[in-house]
Design brief:
The protein has helices at about 1-20, 25-35, 75-80, 220-230, 250-255, 275, 310-320, and strands at about 40-50, 55-65, 70-75, 85-90, 95-105, 110-115, 135-140, 150-165, 170-175, 190, 195-205, 215-220, 240, 240-245, 260-270, 285-290, 290-295, 300-305, 305, 325-335, 340-350, 350. It is of the alpha+beta class. The chain folds into three domains: about 35-120, Trypsin-like serine proteases (Thrombin, subunit H); about 135-230, Thrombin, subunit H (Beta Barrel); about 240-350, Roll (Pdz3 Domain). The chain has a six-stranded antiparallel beta barrel with strand order 1-2-3-6-5-4. Strands 7-8-9-12-11-10 form a six-stranded antiparallel beta barrel. Strands 14, 15, 18, 19, 20 and 21 form a six-stranded antiparallel β-sheet that branches. The relative contact order is 0.10.
Length: about 350
């Protein structure tokens, strides 16, 4: 009998050892316990009207996280867009009316503020997204489908140059297979040390649910946006003032250009930095294949020493600058005799009009 009891006890000890958490599980549990309270639920309250002008409450929700003890919260612009009233729920169950400090549709980011006491606020530490690697572990905390403070884990699946979500183009995007669903938007993407490396913002889905492809805005992008919003209430962008069109090899062959890639300058805004620098816009339009191409203007082939292969390259490079910065553009220009001449144009960038 005694030997039987000892054998049973030994089996229990073995089973309890088998149930012990792995080091990776311990890491996930520790991060969640430490930082979960810094993730908030945001309710966007709005009123719509039916055909008979009867008010119809229209509520939606998303996530966000606490930036500092002054009550600033970072989230997505699309989470708060169109709100008539914003309400933030903390992990302790308390609810606070939030003020929109500022938003930036270009990066899909927004900053809110609540007047909660500092001791009620768990601030999430911000990391560095400049050296992320495909394959590294990430954790997402948010409120998917209204299920508050849910944790999902995965890896960085890819680091993409750009992703378009609707009309918004987001640069240097983090792709992850950590489960992100509606309601996760605005929540933090964390590394294995518990630092915020991204803001969960969108999913690729044919069904409306998670299929393992989610996207997050890098925290380094968010740092600049937050700094501008807190200082000015809006984000400042550099402005060139030139509308461009992508030069393709097919168009280049038809026009007999000595280059196959670049950004065709279509129009130059009057009084813009591009105009002051002498950049030339197109003079006529032609139909090449199925495309309407405006020709006769400069072709930008490089900027700041970097090759420009399309119009998007130039726009992205301008956005990385600040107003007042100078850019050197290498352009191909046609003279009156129809000869091509390469030259360098220096532009002092302005501030994008609001």
């Amino acid at each position: 009998m005694r030997s039987t009891l000892l054998a049973i006890a030994a089996s229990w000890v073995a089973a309890s050892s088998a149930w012990a958490l792995t080091s990776d599980e311990e890491n996930s549990v520790a991060i969640y316990r430490r930082l979960n309270a810094g993730v908030v639920n945001i309710t966007n309250r709005a009123i719509a009207y039916d055909f008979f002008f009867n008010p119809i409450p229209s509520d939606s929700s998303g996530s966000g996280f606490i930036l500092d003890t002054r009550g600033h919260i970072l989230t997505n612009h699309h989470v708060v867009q169109g709100a008539q009233r914003l309400e933030v729920s903390l992990a302790d169950g308390s609810k606070w009316t939030a003020k929109l400090v500022g938003a930036d549709p270009q990066t899909d980011l927004a900053v809110l503020q609540i007047k909660a006491p500092p001791e009620a606020l768990t601030v999430l530490p911000l990391g560095d997204s400049s050296a992320l690697q495909v394959g590294q572990k990430v954790l997402a905390i948010g409120n998917p489908f209204g299920l508050e403070h849910s944790l999902s884990a995965g890896i960085i699946s890819s680091l993409r140059k750009v992703v378009k979500t609707g009309a918004t183009e987001i640069e240097d995007v983090i792709q992850t297979d950590a489960a992100i669903n509606p309601g996760n938007s605005g929540g933090p993407l964390l590394d294995s040390e518990g630092h915020v490396i991204g803001i969960n913002t969108a999913i690729f889905t044919p069904s409306g649910g998670n299929i393992g492809i989610g996207f997050a805005i890098p925290i380094n992008t968010a740092k600049r946006v937050v700094a501008d919003i807190l200082a000015r209430g809006h984000v400042v962008y550099a402005y060139l003032g030139a509308e461009t069109q992508t030069l393709t090899p097919g168009v280049a062959r038809v026009l007999q250009l000595p280059v196959e890639h670049g950004a065709l300058v279509v129009r130059v805004a009057r009084g813009s930095p591009a105009a002051r620098a002498g950049l030339l816009g197109g003079t006529r339009q032609v139909v090449i294949g199925n495309a309407i191409v405006i020709i006769g203007g400069d072709v930008v082939t490089a900027a700041d020493g970097q090759a420009i292969t399309n119009a998007e390259d130039l726009r992205r490079l301008v956005r990385k600058h600040q107003p007042g910065d100078r850019m050197k553009l290498e352009v191909l220009r046609t003279n009156r005799q129809g000869e091509f001449k390469r030259s360098t144009v220096e532009v002092k960038l302005g501030e994008l009009p609001r």
